[in-house]
Queue: 2 jobs
Job 1
Amino acid sequence: MPDIFSHFNYVVVIVLMMTGLYTVFASRNLIKKLAGLSVFQTSVFLLYITIGKVTGGQPPILIKDKSYGVDDEGQALLDGVVQVAAGKDSYIIGGPGTDILYSNPLPHVLILTAIVVGVATLSIGLALTVRIREVYETIEEDEIEAADFVYNLEGTAD
Amino acid sequence: MSFLELIPDWLLIHGPAFLMALPLIMAAITAILPNKRVAWASTFIVTAILTLTAFSIALYNAEVGSTLYKMGGWAPPHGISLVIDALNAPVIVLIAVMAFITVIYAMPATIAEIKPNKRAPFYAAFLLSIAGLLGMVVSGDAFNVFVFLEVSSISTYVLVAMGAARDRRALSAAYNYLILGSIGATFFVIGVGFLYMETGTLNMADMARILADMDGGSRVSKIAFGFIVIGLGLKLAMFPLHAWLPGAYAYAPTPVTAFLASTATKAALYLLLRFTFFVFDPSYTYVADVLMFVLVGLGVIGMLFASLQAIFQTDVRRMLAFSSVAQVGYMLLGVGIATTASVAAGYLHLLNHAVIKGGLFLALGAMWYRFGITRTQDFQGLGQTMPWTMGAFTILGLSLVGVPFTAGFVSKINLAEAAADAGWWWAVGIIMLTSILALIYIGRVLLMAYFQSPPEVNGNVVDRNEAPLMMLFPMWVLAIASVVIGVEAGVMVDAATRAAELLLGTG
């Protein structure tokens, strides 16, 4: 039982993922399928963002500085400090070996990309549904298959 | 290397980035071009340049070995790197060449199949698809692979749906492809997420190194591997996950079908090779188990069932689509046996099958273009009414069956030999059996075409009506290529062997 609460995010991810997948496979309505697909993809966003969380970590914002592990020449005093040069000032990012703890920003960046991809997929899906409705005048899969039954039987259009 | 001396240095150095940047940028420009011929010309020029670049990169690679391109100058573990090595160089050439050949063919085909105001967007989507495929093949970064996978998939959904002008079933085929394709890509990205959890890096070479240090890693990397195999399995139409493929191939515009059949599933299969042998390693127990039981098992079942299904299709395009699923089974069998010879044979079949199936779909498209036919029973007398098209179809069809002196024979004999060397005699038997099944479905069409007279329409026997030259040329290039590979297989076999040696670390 305690495992469920200590891994609460993962539990939510699994529930969302399975709900989404089930909706995609179980419903016969094109819009409902796309809704399921969206839920499924959203669960992945949550999974990635959960990976990025570091217990007690701060937002990863560059600190303009000298005092944290860098001497006057800008040389790192400690191993594992990643230095970033931006303009004239020197900045540092905390890492192993420093006393600053940051959340990992990379998964957030990745997931921004994945969200864009998800939006693109969803919009193409919706556009296709609109076209299907124009042609078949229904968005129920059963009715579409019934309408194409004769087509499929003869193996050709017209 | 006189050819390489003609190529400017910057192209060789920045080639990997150029390969995906050029079609991406030109896609945006092509989309707003004033339609029709201008859009076609721009696509034609882009694919011609890509073909040239791909060839020079492949030759350069053969000369200097693997090259690493640092995107934006950021060093590999942090920055995104593009990698060219013996494994992906042939696939890059394949994609570029098939794109070029398809574009030549697309000129007459789109006039018949795509509405005039949709032609510029059609070519734009086509270029995007090329950019996505090349991007996912050259990328050395796992998440970047996902992004390009989605770029190519999303543009492919659009391309498939464009077949609606000809057959309304293209719409529901595209919708099914979208649902299953997105699930596949999402599974892949879940797998990459778990791998990132385990290794803390997205660079594939880095992942491989860290996983090797951890001796295969914990349960997290096992789950990652499972998700990646299933995700890519959906994309490459591994047997029970192939439901999207027949519809998408049958109802897409004909140039799109040819391009998809020869590149999209092949790029996904390349990724499967990259992940199973390069990022993961067959020495980990869970990878070996998946290779032995999942890939071989599903590959063999797919070979048998999809071949049988192909025999009972009334629509020739659906027949060839099922045959594609069966051929993917051969490649998976080669990959699953996991010896250098078998992986080389699987890889060789990947290249050869792309040439064969691309050509077959081009020939079918020409038949639709002239007579509007897609059913097997309509093939009556095509040997007389379209002799050149039917000639190319015959050569390529025999190559698919695996008749000696054709490309299909070379890869099948290599695969059978590799299976026999590994002691898998039953697999040799199944390769023979499915070749006979292929002979049945191809032979049925050929008999119809050559031994029946052309049908009568309104009391007149149908006249000879050959496809236009711009359609004949591409399909004959592929038909001749398949014979040349069959007779003089050395170059291809060497390339495949180098790729397999790289993967299995035996080179």
Job 2
Amino acid sequence: MSDSIKMTYTVSDTDFTRAGEASSDVKKRLRQMGCDPEVIRKVAIAMYEGEINMVIHANGGEIEVEITPEDITMVLKDKGPGIPDIEKAMQAGYSTAPENVRALGFGAGMGLPNMKKYSDEMNIETTVGVGTTVTMKVHQ
Amino acid sequence: MLKVSELLKMDCFTVKNLPEGGGDREIGSIYCCDLLSIAMSKMTEAAAWVTVMSNLNTLAVASLSDVACVVLAEGVAVEEAMLQKAVQQEITVLWTELPIFDAALKIQKAFEA
């Protein structure tokens, strides 16, 4: 892997059935590049949780992924409601997911905690009423 | 090591989808949980994942976690769209009337045999 590779994915608004397509595609590419399986696993989990969050809370958004020999950077941008209390949102088990989402097996309050756990660096920029940008980096 | 094909021989499991080479996958562990975020963060590769959560997201998690097979328990309904996705993503899906614990126990006993 010499050059950096950039990809952009659109996460659709409320279509749960398509959530996971972006992370699945990134996983496939990393595999083809011969990445360490643990790195792939971390990227796949962090990104899928991010995708799901965008569908549940933000009417979708956009994900930019950059792969370099040093790391994988994922930037998840949405124009959703923003996160009023990041500290609370980061607590494992805290969830604001609606009932219909819980019925699908989500809403355990593990989304952001899993994203933090599986990325080596994570930064959240959020403004209530404007949107949220989550940047995650996984080192190769 | 226990292969998925051993489970196929057991009366209690019905095959819903079996991709090429699916039976040859070795089962590394047995995992039970219906909450997808927890399953995804805890499941190890090549798990036999026993759950009642029967939807497309189950398959997304199964694919990302690279499970050996999904075992849908308690006789849950399996929608056509889910089966199509399982075919497309090449995920082995088994189905059983058994409750989660009993299904997992059957697999565990096969492991020990």
